[in-house]
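Usage

Read records sequentially. Each one opens with the input sequence:
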Amino acid sequence: MSTRSEDFAGLSVAMITPFKNGEVDYETLAAQVEFQIAAGTTAIVPVGTTGESPTLSHEEHRKVIEATVEAAAGKIKVMAGTGSNSTAEALALTRHAERAGADAALLVGPYYNKPMQEGFYQHFKAVAEAVNIPICIYNIPGRTGKMIDADTIIRLSELPNITMVKEATGQMDMASRVASATDLTILSGDDSLTLPFMSVGARGVVSVVGNFIPKDVIAMCNAFDNGKIAEAQAWHRKLFPLSRDMLSLATNPIPVKAAMHLLGRDSGEMRLPMTPLDEPALAKLRKTLVQYGCLQ
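and closes with the structure output:
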């Protein structure tokens, strides 16, 4: 079945935001974008949860989107994180992303203030009607404090430029319900659930592990799309320990920042209140990376 944003099928990478001495490291950011272009990644997603958007100033947030679009240079799609619990702020960020040249916007459900379902609907509707780029609804109640119900997502699918859902509820029934009732492009929000979600109609993933092993995630998605189910299952089993560690050792993006540092791809620096992995967790992560084969 063809979905509404098939050009975003496959691997989208939830990019980390590199820091150096407390400031955004734009040189390393550009290098990480080049890494994803070379891997054949479908899209990069700056300033989301993995990009530590809560600790960026509004100016930094806008500049990271601009720098990502510039580094992408039309060679890879950019889905910019522009969500907020303030509709006015989400509108401003999404309008800026569109002006900057982003190909789509990822909008997390409004967090902390826990709107009613009508509030969710009016929030996304206001943004969608103000811009022309595709909108991806990011449903992650573990972060926001409240679920965007399937009925609300189905209702929002009637708006033409709401085209995708990043499904991070962990509920197969949610993905199945949206897939059966709409033509929205569903993207898994959890690496460990990518293949299970694809089996019920999802078209790919917004991935954390893709920051450092994008080709393997692409291989799993391609194997499934080509009907090579056993091969896709083999990739799922191989990827699972890393996918597990990225979410179980500490709050995202602490583990992926640590992994990128161990692999020599990032400083590993974060901003408070995010703190580094403790030594036992770091030792476990190092062991998983060695067993996977991406660290000696």
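Summary fields computed downstream for this record:
- The chain has a mean pLDDT of 97.
- The CA atoms of residues 153 and 198 lie 18 Å apart.
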